[in-house]
Specification:
By secondary structure, the protein is α/β, with parallel strands linked by helices. Helix content is 34%, strand content 19%. The protein has helices spanning 20-28, 51-57, 74-88, 104-112, 127-132, 139-153, 174-188, 197-207, 221-227; strands spanning 4-11, 31-40, 60-63, 93-97, 116-121, 135-138, 195-196, 231-237, 243-249. The radius of gyration is 25 Å and the shape is elongated.
């Protein structure tokens, strides 16, 4: 099965750069981001914080000046581009990243054309836009959940500010990759706890094009995953004789049973003579 080709279109006037990793990770769970564009008036100092995020994630900025004070011309530019991309016939779906209900009709039109539409925005997004999408992802809730998990895994990180626009070194950090793979397994688990290693590998490449098992001294993905202490890899033989590998989060070892408490020794009392 081929990956879906997606266009990720971001409304910079409506979305913070702190969500960039969440946006691209969520898009990767559906397919390949064949087109990544972000729309705004880049002469506006308020959008300056997006610069590093765009460079580090190969997102193409589209300039749109405001024609009239108080009117947002960005929405129109984004809608026109979306329709151009639709008629190009090269895409299977769209990620519309905004909390603005003005994109409701666009989402509905793209779905009418048979395209998958994934909406992304903050929880303030209004119902009409949310309902017009096939699926809608609340970026602030996902980011909060990810932060909570990272803080639990590494308590020291709770007091450390991490710039979301900074370069992500996950692809070369075994500990970070371990946390990422655990999350992937949890998302793809069909109830057995086991996931095909090839599916994990596909997701790693989608999210981190620079990921290579040879960076960690391994010659195969299966061997690399087996080196992560929190994971367990198993090979199974199919009916046709071909082997297939699965991975799961290593089940927690049960605690040893507690030794029964010894009865308290009775104190001997001397009888008075």
């Amino acid at each position: 099965m081929e990956d879906l080709k997606l266009a990720v279109l971001i409304d910079a006037d409506n979305i913070s750069p702190k969500y960039v990793k969440v946006i691209l990770d969520e898009a990767a769970s559906f397919g390949v981001a064949a087109c990544k564009r972000i729309y705004g008036d880049w002469s506006d100092v308020r959008l300056k914080s997006w610069k590093d995020a765009l460079l580090n994630n190969s997102i193409i900025p589209v300039q749109q000046y405001g024609y009239t004070v108080g009117k947002n011309a960005t929405d129109s530019a984004m809608i026109i581009d979306a329709m151009d991309l639709l008629y190009s016939g090269n895409l299977d779906g769209f990620c519309i990243v905004s909390s603005d209900s003005d994109f409701t009709r666009l989402a509905a039109r793209l779905r009418e054309a048979g395209k998958l539409v994934i909406g992304m925005g903050e929880s303030k997004a209004l119902g009409p836009f949310v309902k017009a999408c096939d699926q809608f992802k609340y970026l602030d809730l996902i980011l909060g959940q990810n932060h909570e998990e990272n803080t639990t895994a590494n308590p020291a990180a709770g007091d450390t500010f991490v710039d979301p626009a900074a370069s992500d070194d996950t692809a070369t950090n075994p500990e970070a990759l371990g946390r990422l793979v655990r999350g992937m397994i949890d998302e793809m688990d069909d109830g057995t706890g086991w996931v095909r290693t090839s599916r994990v590998g596909d997701q790693l490449i989608k999210r981190y094009p620079d990921f290579d098992v040879r960076n960690f001294g391994s010659k195969s993905l299966n061997r690399f995953l087996a080196t992560l202490s929190e994971l367990e890899v198993e090979e199974r033989i199919l009916a046709n004789g071909n082997p297939i590998q699965f991975v799961r989060v290593h089940p927690a070892k049960p605690l040893p049973p507690k030794a029964p408490a010894r009865p308290a020794a009775k104190k001997r009392t001397r009888k008075a003579r």
